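Input (structure):
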């Protein structure tokens, strides 16, 4: 196997690895006696699938000619590459050199696949990601911590049902990673974010307002401090003058 992508890590490959540990599909089969190695993505956001296609085509240095098609309400795109297929089939340890070098890009790909942004108020969003692989979520938590973003992992009920491509299935034991506080979610917004417009818009809406309110609060606080300082200086001067006049009368 040619280790082209291992020798040249970059942000696009890190983003693709993030998708790989989420929604990416790897399928190999024989067609008319010829082996084909297919890398595909199926999602409900067309901009996400388009981003995946452009990323893979850029890595393969080929023109973006693969068609995105709609199937039962989901957008799909498949690209064939034996080398990239084999590289993506490797385990997490083999991918860590790329991930550790570009953690924000890996996290963006992972949260595009597995994450969600739930707007709780005008200035607060709950950012979360769910997966049945607890060790993977712990590694994601470790990468977030490296970027200065705190998070917590909680178990989800194994009795829950999930809908997969329109079919209701019983879920495996799943885990959820949450970035809940305004401060930490704001860091995520600035350092990681989403490529998917549907997920990024709640963050932009919440934290743009938060930044505006914070700026207004800081300006008001600065004016308050200046006013208090002016009053203190005036009182100090009055006390000094009062003491001087008292001395003169004596």
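Output (sequence):
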């Amino acid at each position: 196997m040619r280790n082209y992508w291992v020798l040249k890590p970059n942000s696009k490959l890190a983003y693709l690895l993030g998708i790989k540990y989420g929604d990416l599909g790897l399928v190999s089969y024989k067609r008319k006696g010829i082996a084909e190695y297919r890398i595909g993505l199926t999602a409900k956001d067309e901009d996400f699938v388009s981003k995946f296609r452009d990323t893979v085509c850029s890595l393969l240095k080929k023109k973006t000619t693969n068609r995105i098609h709609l199937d039962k309400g989901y957008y799909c795109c498949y690209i064939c590459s034996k080398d990239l297929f084999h590289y993506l089939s490797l385990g997490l340890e083999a991918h860590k050199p790329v991930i550790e070098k570009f953690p924000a890009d890996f996290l963006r790909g992972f949260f595009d696949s597995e994450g969600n942004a739930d707007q709780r108020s005008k200035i607060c969003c709950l950012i979360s990601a769910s997966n049945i692989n607890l060790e993977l979520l712990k590694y994601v938590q470790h990468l977030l911590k490296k970027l200065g973003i705190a998070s917590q992992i909680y178990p989800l009920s194994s009795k829950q049902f999930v809908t997969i491509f329109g079919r209701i299935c019983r879920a495996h034991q799943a885990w959820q990673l949450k970035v809940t506080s305004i401060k930490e979610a704001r860091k995520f917004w600035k350092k990681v974010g989403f490529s998917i417009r549907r997920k990024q818009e709640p963050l932009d809406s919440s934290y743009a307002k938060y930044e505006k309110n914070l700026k207004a609060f800081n300006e008001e606080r600065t004016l308050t401090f200046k006013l208090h300082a002016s009053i203190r200086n005036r009182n100090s001067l009055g006390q000094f003058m009062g003491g001087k006049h008292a001395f003169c009368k004596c």
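Notes: The CA atoms of residues 236 and 242 lie 10 Å apart. The first helix runs from residue 4 to 7.
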